[in-house]
Amino acid sequence: MDGVSGQRGWRWILIIEGLPSFVLGIAIWFLLADSPETASYLNDEEKELMRVRRERQAGQTESAQKFHKKDVYLALKDWKVYAFCAGQFGTDTMLYGYSTFLPTIIKGLGKWSTAETQALTIPCYCLGALSYVVVARLSDAQQRRGLYTVMFAFISVIGYGVLISKASTGVHYFGCFLVAMGLYVSCGLPLAWLPNNQPRYAKRTTATGLQLTVGNSSGIMAPFLYPSTEGPRYLRGHGVSLAMVGMASAIFAFMSWYLSRENGRRRRGEEDVRVAGMSEDEIAELGDESPRFIFTV
Fold it and tell me: What's the pTM?
């Protein structure tokens, strides 16, 4: 399409790839309901099922589904939210660096044409997508986020180690697959993990907004990690990405341990003293601070 309507081919790539997201983003504003009660695409039985399932979860009260400024402040003061933000920044550094510069990395591994280089990126992305779908299914069925996040982040760390090493072209290409295998899992699961542990609407939306904002800010740094002057091995880019993913895996491992410990304390009744004298309704309004609430780990 180079030259069509006076536009270069690379511009058409950006237009074609970006147009679906642009159109869908506008459509979602009108099509996606704010709650099960207002969802026109659900029948009465499905709406009732969602309501019952929500009420079974601790902290999912009627008041919790409304926006309260107090919950916003609670999110801003919760250290766990900032821990997830830091971990997201680490994994998103890999996301932006890998997604943007994979063709550049692969081109540095051998003497291929631009078309061949682009073709060689496809298997890497396919493995990443397949890993994400399979692990997301397992994680959701088991309600375990930390285990898979840390495990696959470590796989990406190994992949960057392979890319840094002095090895053959084939081994370095294999390293690209390892990075891709852990990339989307370690970036995507924490985006479900944090809101899973925020039953109150305003706190959940504030926490998720912070997580996305801090994580996406890594995109400012990522373009400077792979300057063409440092090719073909790009040691600095791989080294920084390895370090950031390693940091993220350490943070998520700690959060998994900490939340598991808190669940144990709550199940043993060690946190009940904090709600002594409170009614069950008052306890339910505490959200994730309630000793009745069990964290997803």
Answer: 0.88
